[in-house]
Every structure is written in C-alpha cells, then in structure tokens.
Amino acid sequence: xxxxxLLKKVKIIDPNSSYNQQVKDIxxxxxxxxxxxxxxxxxxxxxxxxEKNLHISPGxxxxxxxxxxxxxxxxxxxxxxxxxxTAGGFTGVAITPNTSPSISNGSTVEYILNKSKxxxxxxxxxxxxSANLKGIDLAEMYDMKQAGAIAFSDVKRSITNxxxxxxxxxxxxxxxxxxxxxxNDQNINHNGQINEGIVSTSLGLEGIPHLAEEIQITRDIYxxxxxxxxxxxxxxxxxxxxxxxxxxxAKNINITSDIAAHQILFTDQHTSQYDTNYKVLPPxxxxxxxxxxxxxxxxxxxxxxxxxxxxxxxEDKEKEFDLAKFGIINLQTAFPSMLTKLxxxxxxxxxxxxxxxxxxxxxxxPIPCISPQEKANFVLYNPTKEWTFLPQDILSKSKxxxxxxxxxxxxxxxxxxxxxLHLTSD
Length: 426
Known about the structure:
The chain is an alpha/beta fold. It has twelve helices and 19 strands. Strands 1, 2, 3, 4, 5, 16, 17, 18 and 19 form a nine-stranded mixed beta sheet that branches. A five-stranded parallel beta sheet has the order 9-10-13-14-15. The chain has a three-stranded parallel beta sheet with strand order 6-7-8.
C-alpha cells in the first residue's frame, strides 16, 4: 500500500467540490485527501504522479452490471469483473441477481459481499424481486436488505403480473427499499430480436416495438403513484418513454431512470449486417430516440448512465442472429464512450454526475467528494487522449463487445479505492 500520493496539476471535475473546474495539486495520505493547493512541494516520501491533462473526479459507480458468480463463472467471476470495472474507471459496481443460484436470499448476498472485500472495487449485490426470478412469489427482500442488498430487480425478466409488482413496491416501502423495473411487455414483444421498423422488416427479423416498453412504463408509473413508493426504470430506450417519465416527475411521482451507455451510440442500422455483438435488450432504436435520451439526460429526466455489462460465452453469440443471446460487455468502454460522445454535446460535469454521483444518490450510498478531509475515492483520466480498444485490452472473461478496434477520445489513467491506487496499463 502506498501511504502518500501527490497528484500534480490535476483538473478537478466534481460538481459537489468547491474546487470544481480548478487545476490543483492534491495530496493523499493513508487513504484520505489531506491537501488541495495551487502547489504542494514534493517531500520525497510521496509517490508523485504528473501526467499531461490529467483530470480527477469521484470514482464512478456502475448502477447495473452482470457478473456470473455464483454459478456462471465461465462468463465472469467477481475478480475478473472487478478488473474490468477498475480499468473502466469504476470504484463501485451494483451487480444483478441473475446468477445460479440467484441472489434471492440473505446468505447469497453475504457470500457476494464477503468474497469481494479484497477486490479493487466495491461490489454491492442487487437482490431479486421474485423468488428465484420466477415472477410468482416475492423473494425474501427484507432479509436481503438486512444482509446488504442495495436494491431489488428481476433484471430483464419483466414483472408481467401487476399485482406482484404492486406488492413489491408496498413491501419495500416499509424499509425504504428500491425496486428496479425493466419494461418490456412480453405479450407485445413476443420473440423480438431488434427494433421493429424498416431494418427489422428488411432483415426478416421479428421486431421489438417501442410499445412493448412504453405500455409497461405507463403501468408501472401508475403502480408507483398508487403505492407512493420508490421505483427506478432500467435501460429505457424510447423517446415516448422519456416523455412519460418527464410527465410523471412533474406530478412528483417518486421515480428515477437510467440508460445503458451504448444506447446513445448505435441505431438499429448497426444490426443490418447480422452482427450479434449489436444484439442487445432493449434493442438499438432510432436517431430520434437517441436525441430524446440525450435531452432527458440534460434536463435530469434520466438520472443515471450505466454499463449494462452483460458477458456472454462465445457459443452464446457465434450463431444465427435470432438464436444468439442479448447483451454486450461494457465496463471498460462505458466511460470512454461517454467522454467521446456525450461530453462534447453536454459537459464533463454531466457525465460525472450521471456515472458517479447520481447512482450513489439513488442507492443512498456515501458520495465521494474531491475535498480535503474526505476519504479518497476517485478516478483519474485524460478526457482528450485518443486510444483504440483492442482485443488484447479486454479484461473480462467474455469478449462480446461491439467496440473492438473503436478509437475513443478519453482514457482512464487509474482509480483509487480502499487505500489502493490502481493504474491502468497504457
């Protein structure tokens, strides 16, 4: 463990810091930020970091990523997922409960927390809403909350029974739990593969209409209002969905939402070559939907950007498009892709807010701040450095990424979490 670290001439991007947008020297000692000044003299004891155009922000927190452990360690285990997250600038990750066994009880929550204590990121489990993800009976949510579960979700198995979701909202309200809903009405979606439209018709693939998301969003908004409970919408993708959430917020209904980072990078046109690395759920929509999602981020209709990291084995992707499974790996590329695409359209502050501050705020976790006497928890990065993501850069056990050979503008230099500095290899 390095006891003292001196960062020279780093630009602070942290909306909660009084030093926001300022270039300063920062001294970290024994896991705490002890000084922030225009210039701090080197004393020979500290490890000094001097990099061109180095920026510092609170460590990123991924609102939703899938790791395989327990049960699907061949796709991703806790250690490999942590390495990928660290390389992507994250110091915390909320992991989904679609493991085997699923995270449906307190003992599985405790297993995740205990095994991940020594890793380079904070890993916090999300518990299931329904027992064993069956969508029939409620899981042991209170016991999981007591054990350390930070929210509850059936991942991308939408809750088709409105009574079950209503009971879950009412039950978690008693202990201020958070329900995460993925809106995809299976009665409308059927066996959809990509966005319903011109591209799906030309490819001869079953389409997933916007309506599959929007009709369930409408239902769930009513349920949140009826139960006066907290509800979070995961991976929204439709322009109409943004409008529905915006109107609900105007009525002070207690809802929040997120998008997957890759959702604003691709349209359904990217699926036209039957490349299964572009097969995701929800599917890539239209440019008008991307524009609406970005507007929603700007006016805080959408609070969070997550990786939606979904590792798949080779045999899950290297097959006919309609047989391949949904999902991409994205822990290493979510932040660079947002530095490349979103920051020039909005600001660095907005990206940091959506990927570091708002996720923790919604999950009611401590929010790191770049200020003296604060515990050190940060990401270092150069927002203008160009680099290309190559196959050998992938730290995940799975390789299902559409970003291989993509050149990004913005590179992670390292993270600091739990008294440890983790530098990425260049």
